[in-house]
Phytanoyl-CoA dioxygenase
Amino acid sequence: MPLETTLEAGNSITNRRREFERDGFLLLKGFASPEECAGLQRRMQELIAAWNPATEQQTVFVTDQKQQIKEQGSSDYFLDSADRIHFFLEKGATEDSKLKSDVAKNRSLNKVGHGLHVADRAFKEYSHSDKVTNLVQELGWKDPVLPQSMYIFKQPSIGGEVTSHQDSTFLHTTPRPTCLGLWLALDPATLENGCIWARPGSHTEPIRRVFVRNPARFEKGDMSAPQMIFDDLSKGEQAWEWEGKMPDQFAPPSKGLFEKGFKPLECEAGDLVVIHGQVDHLSLANTSDKPRDTFQLHLVEGPSQGITWSPRNWLQYPAGKTFPSLSGDGQGPEKKRKALSSNCVCFCDLCCCCSCCCCCCYCCCCCCCCCCCSVAPVSKKFVAWHDENLDSIAMRSSC
């Protein structure tokens, strides 16, 4: 199902939103600064230093369908990671499901997840930053929440492939899919170290399967049944033979990937790949001596938009705990703007009658909300500036 494109009056569809709706993905250069990338990497190394593999469950993370059900369902460690920070090993770093003695722990990991945006301040600050919030709103999400975050390593030489998949398989909402992935490159991502490959236009295809908690175990109490299963939704329609696997001839020079319509998305550190939840994408193994760290954030539309998180999803927060709002306070830029405009005196005829809307709107305690009114035209540049500075404007408007 394509992303809905209905916008409220007064808004416009940007060029990058058009590109996103056409292809199902978007590559944004320089989204995060070198300092931001280094800060997230430094914080992850601190978390790894504090991690003791000997005292925690050692779980391998793989994406091959049969192995995925086995490895992720071998204990509660995977399920319990929803709102916590858990460490998952790379298959090539283990022997008999245990960490090899000659592999350093900071080189043994496949990923850390799935609650970094909840449980760690540095990752939480990035996840709720203005630029993330504004980008998501620009692309059409109204009141999104954050169910999942992951730090993916793709270790040099041993970092494994990620098979073809749609993110909505793992993060499913009803009555329509609303998953959006924000894939931040913390290192350069190249053909050699495992950049993303995506198939343009595949977001218009239906979800082919969902990864769910097995009702035989969780509803009927059969403890011998696997914890998770894949539920096939395709019923033979538009099912690709490489779903959960890889197309033939995928290894470099990757002739098979090009023939099936996949496109490599090479990135520099700080670039962001935005991925629609139904886009078919994958990545190859890291055969180089270079790392390929990424921080990946997934969001879905919130309940205020009539969207329900599927109770069948593998990922569920503890009873009584809800997914955090993207904006951090349950109010996106649009809600905040309306709230400000309803609580202060507007002087649109004085300071908004021209399109420049200069500093008088910011300096006057009560005039800061005039950009919300429809009495006079407002420059798009000012509205963008206004949204980025809502919190500080709100403080001034209460003087």
Summary: The chain is about 25% helix and 20% strand.
